Amino acid sequence: MTETEVDGSRLLIVDDDALMRSMACRTLSHAGFSVSEADGGAQALALFDLTRFDLVLLDVMMPDMDGYQVCHEIRRLPDGDRIPIIMLTGLNDTQSIELAYQAGATDFIAKPINWTLLTHRVRYALRASLAAESAIRSRDRLERAQRIANMGSWEIAGDNNSFVCSPELARLFGAPVEVMGCASPQAFLDRVTDTDRATVKAMREAAEREGVPYQLTFKVTRFDGAVRTVHEQANPVRDSAGRQIAVEGITQDITDQVETEKRISRLARYDALTGLPNREFFGKLAAKSLERARSASNTCALIYLDVDRFKSVNDAVGQQRANGVLVTLAERLTASVRDIEPKFAGHMASESVLARVGPNTFALLLIDIGDEQHAGAVTDQLLQSVSMPLAIDGSELVLTGSAGIALYPRDSGNNHDLARCAEQALHAAKSQGRAQRRFFDEAMNEYASIRLAKESELRRAIADRQLRVHYQAKVDARSGTMVGAEALVRWQHPTRGLVPPGDFIALAEESGQILALTACVLETVCSDLARWRNAGQTVVPVSVNLASPSFSSDALPAQLTDMVQRHGLTPASLVLEVTESILMADIDRVVVRLEGLRALGFSVSLDDFGTGYSSLSYLKRFPIDELKIDRTFVTDAWRGGRDGAIAASIIALGREFGLRVVAEGVETPEQAQHMVKMGCVYQQGFLFSRPVPADEFARLLDKPSLRDDDA
Questions:
Q1: Tens of pLDDT along 147-193?
Q2: Dist. CA 354–CA 335, nearest whole Å
Q3: By C-alpha distance, which of 387, 285, 431 is closest to 379?
Q4: Average predicted confidence (pLDDT) for the chain
Q5: SS3 7
Q6: 229 strand-pairing partners
Q7: CA 143, CA 168: separation in Å to the nearest integer?
Q8: I want to staple 697 with a disulfide (CB 3.0 to 4.6 A). Which of 230, 265, 471, 575 is the partner?
Q9: How far is CA 95 from the centre of its chain?
Q10: In whole angstroms, what is the distance from residue 251 CA to residue 185 CA?
């Protein structure tokens, strides 16, 4: 350290000799120090209450309190143990010097004082103090860093194998204070678990004898009994001549890190909801099992099992309860597999692997099944476990499952293609009415290729604007006046002609293209409305059907607002049609979405009412504007009976809630007249108009009445 680093330091001179104090003050002030004086011990200690000094020059012989006592009292003050104290003594005996050091003196100067050397002695003491402070701060920083990192340091030195460890290492091991005082390499080695102790001992001995550094992860048992995982690194320490004089190391508690890595690894391999292997991990397990089966020339079966219509369950009871259903099904399937395995005497059933490979799809790999009938019997038992009744909120829920089975090596020789075959067989089972099982055959390859081609064609149709919107009028049946319309999408296929929605809407939903399709329909409707308005025609509100993904999309409100603004329309121009299953998905969230849409000015219509899951207690919560009676109740309502009673109830319900009620599928005058008598004047159906292209619908807008139009 340089002189400038100690200049300005605050010094206190304590001496009952005024002349001595004056000379010392003059000398040290001239050297750049800030100097205070005290004529005795009591005054010196009082000054410590007012300021902090960097060094004290303290006379030994004073009348009120000798220097030894004053030094002792200073050392007892906060931070007093770090202040350099130089004793000024005229006593020239060894005992006085020993007493000075025992009292806590840093140094002493004999009187008479050499004033030239005094400044140098003070500077030296200050520099030594600053160096000690820096070392203490460095040590404190190191200890804090070790504490934050959960790490401790240690050193094994000399031929006597002396052991020195940091306080943080002792804390890491939970070592009591008395153990710290007699720490030894063996004492801490004894804390290593039995399975790792020999390895750690060999590594340390190699480091001590041969200077071999090491890094090692092992487990230790703390003094409180807790088992922790630590990572240790050790390196030899050599002197300037290259001789090894010690081994120093650091030991870090990495238990939390290891546990976190295990959790991350598990999340990457296992389904978080059911605890079963996920699709990716199942693929790896299956690949290994099939490799062993190949060596043993065994026949295997891969079963894909899907819970039928589970989306409806999710919509009806909410995601949380639906997740509970999946957990129960996973437990049932696991129990079924355990029950099946003892029946596989002589087979490698213990290698059976059950996994969750989709939202409501499970997969089971059976090793060495024997024959096809064996795989079919296992699948039947799994489907039976799915169909057992479930209790939800006091009600009984009965589910069904569909399954596809692929055989190894008959259908494929690798796990990837085998999974593809099982999925195709599953899809075939669901296409045949569900609650069935199907084995894979080559015909399914052709079907899958056709389906893939259809998905590609539909994607191209949306991009190339091959979709067409037709409009069907809603009328007041008393006058035939048009009061609204419903937009219905068609696909103008380049070779197949006009494709009805029943041939591609489900495909759009299953392939994830429904959002793009809905956006295309909305854009077309807004464009047509703007065109009719600009032509001076009287336009009516148009209803557009929203599938669940579209209604649930957080982007929907902004998307709708942007569309009507770009086309110069008002939100009242659009009526958004939703189904009961959509409303029952997550009631609280749905209510918020409906309120938000209506606050923007859009009307909401509940389509196909009476066919879904909603009840009156739920319906009164939904902020909607219109109820549409499903055609199944309208067709025979005029004959009376159950359909008539249901239709009358819906009409009364709509009137009670202040909703507009629309009857769908009105095709005959008898149906229309009966619905009017029951109080449902707004109707839609072939009696008034079929769905027609936009240009033809524009001509209908100019007609005062559609009541007498030929259907």
A1: 655 778 888 886 667 788 888 888 888 887 666 666 778 888 888 99
A2: 11
A3: 387
A4: 84
A5: coil
A6: 219
A7: 7
A8: 471
A9: 73
A10: 13
163: CB partners within 8 A, 6+ apart: 154, 155, 156, 183, 184, 185, 187, 188
Q: What is the pLDDT of residue 443?
A: 64
Q: What CATH number is given to the structural domain containing 48?
A: 3.40.50.2300
The C-alpha atoms of residue 661 and residue 677 are separated, in whole angstroms, by 13
pLDDT digits (tens, 9 = 90+) for 670-691: 999 989 998 999 999 999 999 9
Which residue reads 């025979």 in tokens? 636
20-70 pLDDT, tens per residue?
Answer: 889 889 988 888 888 999 999 899 898 988 888 989 999 888 888 888 899
In one-letter notation, the amino acid at residue 326 is L
| 3-state SS string for 60-119 | CCCCCCCHHHHHHHHHHCCCHHHCCEEEEECCCCHHHHHHHHHHCCCEEEECCCCHHHHH
Residue 708 lies in a domain: no
Is 380 strand, coil or helix? helix
Answer for the pair 577, 544: CB distance below 8 angstroms, yes or no: yes
Residue 432, φ and ψ in degrees, nearest 5: -90, 15
Range of the domain at 63: 3-142
Neighbouring residues of 422: CB distance < 8 A, sequence distance ≥ 6? 302, 303, 304, 363, 404, 405, 406, 440
* pTM metric for this prediction: 0.47
Are residues 367 and 290 both part of a single domain?
A: yes
